[in-house]
Write a structure and sequence with these properties.
Helix content: over 70%
Order of helices and strands: HHHHHHHHHHH
Radius of gyration: 26 Å
Shape: globular
Structural class: mainly alpha
Strand content: under 5%
Mean pLDDT: 85
Number of strands: 0
Largest sheet: none
Length: 289
């Protein structure tokens, strides 16, 4: 008991030292909690601004006139120019899957299942998520830097003053291009991964491509390929919306452009990973094996 009393006395004394003039404790606690909750309030505010931005972009995307020429240019910039990087990432993924799973399957006497493991892993999860993250690193950074530079140099304000809707011309075209290009890039990544998985497997133990595909595609249904590939359209929506939002709200000159670029890549990648968890669960519910 004396120990507890000593602690209480010391606490009161410390409070008296900290507040020699009888400070306002309720006010200080209120200020403390307001400061502690500031990051949470900023996050809620950011989410609200993102929702408003998405609503304006969605409305601009479906209203006339349509910016087809700019849309095609963005599809080329996002899709065609990302093709070598996506193909290389898919090929590397196929090689790694082949090398890693061969030894594991050999331990259990299931080495004949190697083609099936490679193909199922690529088309159901590895291909879509890796393609989305690779494209996010390139495209989100490019969109964030481009729109951020236009914002700090007041080009977006000049477009608005010239009766050109920046949400339609700049944001909607890039978001729609991301939605359209991600499934196509994912399919290409899957093909490159399967081919390089076969090359890696046949270097260790010769097997014809026809036999590799027959064994690997045995039991593969259309529902095993279509939903995981189409879910990348959601990844494209997330990537394009976040990158355009971060770019068009840039402040602070060149330093702000750098922050917008970094935040566009980081936030879009994190949101893609979270969305993948939700979409995988939904696919298992609506498209059961």
């Amino acid at each position: 008991m004396p120990l507890y009393l000593s602690i209480i006395v010391l606490a009161i004394a410390a409070g008296g030292i900290a507040q020699p003039h009888g400070g306002n404790w309720p006010g200080q606690w209120k200020a403390f909690w307001l400061e502690a909750a500031s990051p949470f309030r900023q996050f809620i505010q950011w989410c609200g601004e993102l929702a408003i931005f998405f609503g304006r972009v969605a409305r601009a995307a479906v209203s006339r006139p349509y910016e087809f020429r700019e849309l095609i240019r963005q599809m080329d910039s996002i899709g065609a120019k990302s093709l070598p990087l996506v193909a290389l990432a898919g090929a590397a993924t196929g090689v790694v899957l082949s090398l890693q799973t061969r030894d594991s399957l050999a331990r259990f006497g299931a080495k004949s299942l190697l083609p099936s493991v490679i193909i199922f892993s690529l088309i159901k999860e590895s291909g879509p998520i890796l393609t989305a993250l690779v494209v996010s690193g390139r495209v989100a950074a490019g969109i964030g830097a481009e729109l951020g530079s236009m914002k700090v140099t007041e080009q977006i304000d000049a477009m608005d003053a010239s009766a050109v809707d920046p949400y339609k011309y700049l944001a909607a075209t890039r978001v729609v291009a991301c939605i359209l290009m991600l499934p196509l890039l994912t399919a290409i990544s899957d093909v490159c991964g399967i081919l390089m998985g076969w090359v890696s497997a046949t270097l260790a133990e010769p097997i014809s491509l026809r036999l590799f595909l027959n064994v690997g595609l045995n039991g593969v249904r259309f529902n095993d390929f279509l939903p995981p590939t189409l879910k990348t359209a959601v990844f494209g929506l997330i990537m394009g919306t976040v990158a355009c939002f971060q770019g068009m709200r840039t402040r602070g000159g060149t330093a702000g452009v750098g922050r917008a670029t970094t935040s566009a890549v980081v936030i879009s990648s994190l949101m893609i990973i979270v969305a993948d968890v939700i979409l995988v669960r939904l696919i298992l519910v609506f498209f059961p094996s």
